[in-house]
Specification:
DUF1192, rod-shaped, mainly alpha, DUF1192 domain-containing protein
């Protein structure tokens, strides 16, 4: 759970819009964008992993009941 809070971008950060024009932002803004996107990817992977663990536990429970 702590990793999720660490990886989450701050609320004050400008939202990242996928596909937006990248010709105007400065190099620093582009680096910040990359950092935000990497943090969001990490957070998304964490949630996906948690769901997989829950799914695996549920599958194991139902298989043991049917055995």
């Amino acid at each position: 759970m702590d990793e999720e809070h660490q990886a989450r971008p701050s609320k004050a950060a400008k939202p990242v819009v996928v596909g937006e024009d990248l010709s105007r932002p400065s190099e620093d803004e582009l680096r910040e964008r990359i950092t935000l996107l990497e943090a969001e990817i990490t957070r998304t992977r964490g949630v996906l992993s948690e769901r997989g663990n829950i799914r695996s536990a549920a599958d194991a429970l139902f298989k043991s009941e049917n055995s």
